[in-house]
Amino acid sequence: MSLPTSPYIGRFAPSPTGPLHAGSLVAALASYLDARAHHGTWLVRIEDIDEGRSVPGAAEGILALLAQLGMHADGEVVWQSRRKHLYQAAAARIAEHTYPCGCNRREIADSRLGFAPDGAAIYPGTCRYGLAEGRGMRSLRLRVPEPGYDVVGFTDRFAGEVTQRLSAESGDFVLKRADGFWAYQLAVVVDDAEQSVTDIVRGADLLDSTPRQIFLQRVLGVPTPRYLHVPVVRNEHGEKLSKQTGALAVAPGDEAAAIDALLQAARFLGLPLERPASLQAFWQAAIPAWSRLLATRPGALIAPGLI
C-alpha cells in the first residue's frame, strides 16, 4: 500500500444521538487503524449540529468509550455546535450559488421526482428562480449544475468508481434547514477543510452523500479528501444496525470485554486476528494487519455478515 503524498489526517465524527453501538464501532475502528497504519493524525469531531437530536451525555459517553478501547485522538475534540460562525461564513462566501427556498417536505415529496440514493426527496427546483409571491424563506439551497454538467465522480478506496448526476439524483440541496440548523452537508465539508482532513474513512451508508460534498468542496474552493467507505453492519433482518433498529450500546465492563468488542469489529472488517492477551497486544496486531489487508487486497475489505 503506497503512503499518501501529503501528511495523513483522518477523523472519526460520531453524532451524539445515543451511545456507540457495534456498527459505529466498526467505522471508528477502521478510521483509527487507517490513520495509524499511515503514521498519520487521528481526530475526533462530535457532529452535534442537529442539536434537536443530540442526547445529553451521549457525546461524553462516546469519548469515554473510545478512551477505554485505547483510541485516543491526536488533539482537541471539536464540537460542531460550537462552530456555527464557520458555517455562516462559508455560506456567505458562496452566496451567489445559493437561494432561499420556501418549499416544505410534503410539497417536495408531492413533486414525484422520487428519492435520492440516501433517501432524501429529490428537489424539483421550484424556488430556483425566486420565491413565489407570498412565500417566505424556509431553507437555503445550493444550486447544482444543469444536466450535462452535473456529473460528479470519485474513486472510493473500497467501492471503486462512483458517479452521480446531481440534477437528477439530488437536485439543489439544503445548506441551512427550515428549523434554523445548518445542514450536515455544509458542516461536514467546512469542518473537514478547516481541520485539513486528507482521508475520510466512514460507513458506506454515507457513500451517496459524497458526490454532493465533493461538489460543495469545489464551490468553496477547498481540497477533496480521499475516501474509504467501509461496509455497514446489518442485523438479522438485513437492516443497517442503528439506534432505530435496536442496536445495543457497546459497554465493555472490563479489559476482556473491550478486547471482545474490538475483535468482533476487526473480524467484520476482514482482519484475521487471534484473541490477544491484552488491549495493547490487540493494537500491536491490528494495525499491521490492516496495512497487510489493504496492501495485498486493495479495495477488498470483507463485507458480509452480521456482528
Automatic annotation (TrEMBL):
It holds the Pfam family tRNA-synt_1c. The lineage of its organism: Bacteria, Pseudomonadati, Pseudomonadota, Betaproteobacteria, Burkholderiales. Transmembrane segments: none annotated. Binds 1 zinc ion per subunit. Gene3D superfamilies: HUPs. Zn(2+) binds at residues 101, 103, 123, 127. ATP binds at residue 243. This is Glutamyl-Q tRNA(Asp) synthetase. Residues 11-251 form the Glutamyl/glutaminyl-tRNA synthetase class Ib catalytic domain. Its EC number is 6.1.1.-. The gene is gluQ. The keyword Metal-binding applies. A motif ('HIGH' region) lies at residues 14-24. It is an enzyme of class 6 (ligase). L-glutamate binds at residues 11-15, 47, 184, 202. Keywords: Aminoacyl-tRNA synthetase, ATP-binding, Ligase, Metal-binding, Nucleotide-binding, Protein biosynthesis, Zinc. Its cofactor is Zn(2+). A motif ('KMSKS' region) lies at residues 240-244. Belongs to the class-I aminoacyl-tRNA synthetase family. GluQ subfamily. InterPro entries: Glu-Q_tRNA(Asp)_Synthase, Glu/Gln-tRNA-synth, Glu/Gln-tRNA-synth_Ib_cat-dom, GluQ/Sye, Rossmann-like_a/b/a_fold. Catalyzes the tRNA-independent activation of glutamate in presence of ATP and the subsequent transfer of glutamate onto a tRNA(Asp). Glutamate is transferred on the 2-amino-5-(4,5-dihydroxy-2-cyclopenten-1-yl) moiety of the queuosine in the wobble position of the QUC anticodon.
